Amino acid sequence: MEEPATSALDMLCSDIELFDAEKRIVQYILDHPRQASNMTSAALAQASGASEATVSRLSKRLGFNGYRSFQLSLNRDIAKERPGIAPSEISLDNVGGSLQTILSTKSSELEMTAQRLDHSELRATLRLLSEASIIQIVAVGNTIPVAMDAAFKFNQLGLRSITSEINEKASAFSLTLTKQDLLVLISNSGKSRRLMQIAQVARSNGVPIVLLTSETESPLVHMSDHVLTAVNRERLLTTREFQLSRIPLTFVVEVLYYFLYSMLPDPKHHISLHESMMASDKKLDA
């Protein structure tokens, strides 16, 4: 599979550690992406209150050869975006334009995630999911709902899956996993101390580990056997300090679900049994 070109917007929205002056440059670009894409390095430095040397250093820190290659990538990213207002202009004063900006950002997240999913990692993950005796799915904080959705979907297909929003319970259960099981970790940042502890125990017991994340470089990436990376551009809409959107990682779960549905021997039977058990909850007394 050909490696996709580095995306400037993806790197600007990543969780890479930056100095304060570099953060000012990044924030200015995210607030004024179209204007910034046409600025010289000197103009960008002046507009963001940094030095031209810092602009050059930031470009290299983000994975580019220099400012020119960063600028070209940023222009490519902007050309792919649907027309809309700048992210900083989301306001009830312009509901239609704000909705278009949100739609454009979220649509681009899904499109880029689909493009960047590594096919060999996806195949390996699907094989492990389909063959595992027990699948434990663990997340903390904002990504717990993604883990719960994944466990529900995999159980629908007849795969024995478990998750818990209680950290202590998740940690305790991870101690019982064996080489025949699978540990799935979900973390936007890949920097959770709790997930690191659980991953260390799993590795010591020979349990295969799959990570669903929005970061290509993190401690959890290096501890996992297979990694599926989503593209998270939440910072175009809110702040560079957090990645709160669950949509890209939920999309990765959906991708796994539909591929598993096509692979497993009788998924319709398991879904039918599952829905029959749940049907009584959907009936209302006349």
From TrEMBL:
Molecular-function GO term, any one: DNA-binding transcription factor activity
Swiss-Prot/TrEMBL GO biological process terms: carbohydrate derivative metabolic process
Protein name: MurR/RpiR family transcriptional regulator
CDD domains named in the record: SIS_RpiR (cd05013)
TM region(s), chain numbering: none
Superkingdom, taxonomy of origin: Bacteria
InterPro entries: Homeodomain-like_sf (IPR009057), HTH_RpiR (IPR000281), RpiR-like (IPR047640), RpiR-like_SIS (IPR035472), SIS_dom (IPR001347), SIS_dom_sf (IPR046348), WH-like_DNA-bd_sf (IPR036388)
Source organism: Enorma massiliensis
UniProt KW keywords: DNA-binding, Transcription, Transcription regulation
Domain SIS: 125-270
Residue ranges annotated for the HTH rpiR-type domain, each copy included: 5-81
